[in-house]
């Protein structure tokens, strides 16, 4: 009851921090999608480049988030953004690259060759095949990568509170520094609930973007 009462007493702040958290993750993953999808498509043309890009993206994901923040502080301090919003967004953007690039690369590569041949047979150019055939078929797998990136980085963004980025991680960091379990638990539960809600929301979007023929094929498989 004490936890519920604390959450109710601080409901306005909780909503504000939740909106901050969503905005931070949304901007970072949005930029990651705009960059990662084209990269994933581009590397389907070069197997060697694909190996290197995926290898570098995999290495980035293995770097502990607090260490990545620590690396960026002196680098971005040169430009006056050592702490706060900018390093948090850049860190989450970097962490988002692997699932988005990998899923895009895999999805485009796994498009049925017969469909490519059929598109070529009716006179489509490579760009038309990509835009009208390959990308629509790849959308569900690409969206799955975006979902993975979002859910993963909702948790990572909580750590960004330690560099002044705001968000729900503020409750967790203050709960630890002030030895206040109420703040700690409320913050942790809020992050978890947010991740679940966003994941199911994106799953709904993913299903809406899946071509009807693919949905029927999946149901009958």
Automatic annotation (TrEMBL):
Residues 18-204 form the ABC transmembrane type-1 domain. InterPro entries: ABC_transp_perm/SBD, MetI-like, MetI-like_sf. It comes from the Bacteria. The keyword Transport applies. It is found in: Cell membrane. PANTHER family: GLYCINE BETAINE/L-PROLINE TRANSPORT SYSTEM PERMEASE PROTEIN PROW (PTHR30177), OSMOPROTECTANT IMPORT PERMEASE PROTEIN OSMW (PTHR30177:SF4). This is ABC transporter permease. It comes from Billgrantia campisalis.
């Amino acid at each position: 009851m004490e936890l519920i009462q604390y959450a109710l007493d601080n409901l306005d702040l909780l909503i504000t921090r939740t909106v901050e958290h969503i905005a931070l993750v949304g901007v970072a993953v949005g930029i990651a999608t705009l960059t990662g999808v084209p990269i994933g498509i581009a590397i389907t043309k070069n197997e060697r480049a694909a190996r290197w890009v995926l290898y570098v993206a995999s290495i980035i994901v293995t770097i502990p988030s607090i260490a990545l923040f620590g690396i960026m502080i002196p680098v971005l301090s040169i430009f006056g953004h050592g702490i706060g919003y900018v390093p948090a967004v850049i860190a989450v953007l970097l962490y988002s690259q692997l699932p988005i690039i990998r899923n895009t690369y895999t999805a485009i590569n796994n498009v049925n060759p017969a469909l490519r041949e059929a598109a070529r047979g009716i006179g489509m150019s490579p760009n038309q095949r990509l835009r009208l055939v390959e990308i629509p078929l790849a959308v569900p797998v690409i969206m799955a990568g975006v979902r993975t990136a979002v859910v993963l980085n909702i948790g990572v963004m909580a750590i960004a509170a330690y560099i002044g980025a705001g968000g729900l991680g503020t409750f967790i960091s203050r709960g630890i520094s002030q030895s206040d379990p109420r703040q700690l638990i409320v913050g942790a539960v809020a992050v978890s609930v947010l991740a679940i809600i966003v994941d199911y929301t994106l799953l709904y979007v993913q299903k809406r973007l899946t071509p009807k023929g693919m949905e029927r094929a999946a149901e009958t498989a």
